Amino acid sequence: MSNRFHSIFKTIPTSSSFLRNHCFISLPPHFTPRVWICSGGFRDRMEMEGNGVSEASSSEVAVVVGDGELLDKKISLIRKAGPVKLQVIADFDATLTRYWVNGCRGQSSHGLLRQGNPEYDIKRRELYEYYHPLEFSPTIPIEEKTKLMEEWWGKTHGLLIEGGLTYEAIEHSVATSTIAFREGVVELFEFLEKRDIPILIFSAGLADIIEEVLRQKLHRSFKNVKIVSNRMVFDEKGVLVSFKGKTIHSLNKNEHALDMAAPLHDRLGYRDQPTDDNASVKLRTNVLLLGDHIGDLGMSDGLNYETRISVGFLNDNIESSLDSYRKAFDIVYLNDAPMSGVVKLVSELCSNGGD
Ligand SMILES: [Mg+2]
Q: Which CATH number does the domain housing residue 158 bear?
């Protein structure tokens, strides 16, 4: 799957500093952007540095950069400002997690939930089937669509409460789910944690599920990670009784919603450790944004950023979507790529060796 496009690419040289550290190839005539192939493993990638272009292999990843000069300029600006000005904003589903898991479509943090009450699982599914087409309808004005999304999220949350969702059901749902992080996510989080660079994970899903996925799949916590998502309130028996704060849905998941974010480690045993408060996060005006939908670019709305580098993961429908992704994102990784290229990028952003 990941090598589907390799046969139509050919290797070309580059003068871009970002791209000098990546192997890159050109697209066939009906594609306008250049594509770079990078080895899948971070260690392999580091070993390739300075070697310029190398041949594709089975572990390689295709990368598209629409404007290499602009990207280099942004990298230079962020490097000069230093790690203290940088924050990372990431979507969760199909961005931090893989699109394919063992040959099957990976589940989303919302989609994996089994309430322990089939009647309510069916009711939530029916809501999805009604509202999901409306979410992507090109004819519904944004104000009306926003109301529909609030309605959908409100009804879904109501069903979770009415159906008596328990935290135990969340734990079981995650344990039996088809969800996995991209290779390199732990390295990315560790690298950023060491440099006190915050990672805001924006999701219109459920913070408690995302935290449980982090706990079960990564087996550790990171003090620099914040989940900006819908947070549940459980009673002493572990039964859901309400939701905290304003509903975050697909059309308002951005830094305006940051004030309702709670530290990741509330549930992970780091309750007493200090974290950046929301005000200090907003002073970090350089952004690395990671998403898998063009709409994810809106996650930095509400932040008056100076320089933003956007990375898009184009996981599927590549031929039909590549052009729009290439125009929207600074860097596009194709075919459900690992996170290792982003690890390399942040190491460049945090290096202080000048240009
Ligand atoms: Mg996503």
A: 1.10.150.340
Residues in the chain: 355
Range of the structural domain that residue 158 is part of: 104-175
Helix axes 207-218, 185-194, angle to 10 degrees: 100
Rounded to the nearest angstrom, the distance between the alpha carbon of 256 and the centre of ligand 1 is 19
Span from the CA of 103 to the centroid of ligand 1 (angstroms): 19
* Span 37-54, pLDDT tens digits: 544 333 333 233 322 223
Segment 8-22 mean pLDDT: 48
Q: 94 C-alpha to center of ligand 1: Å?
A: 5
List the catalytic residues. Answer: 91, 93
DSSP-assigned letter for residue 56: -
The whole-number average pLDDT for the span 10-21 is 50
Query: Residue 331: inside a domain, yes or no?
Result: no
Positive or negative torsion for Cα 78, 79, 82, 84: positive
Indicate whether 167 belongs to any domain: yes
Q: Are 35 and 22 in contact (CB under 8 A)?
A: no
Angle at 179 between CA 295 and CA 113, to 5 degrees: 85
> How many A from CA of 125 to the centre of ligand 1?
19
Per the rule left: phi > 0, alpha: psi between -120 and 50, beta: everything else, 100 is beta
The structural domain count of the chain equals: 1
For the segment 219-245, what is each residue's pLDDT rounded down to a tens digit? Answer: 988 999 999 899 999 999 999 999 998
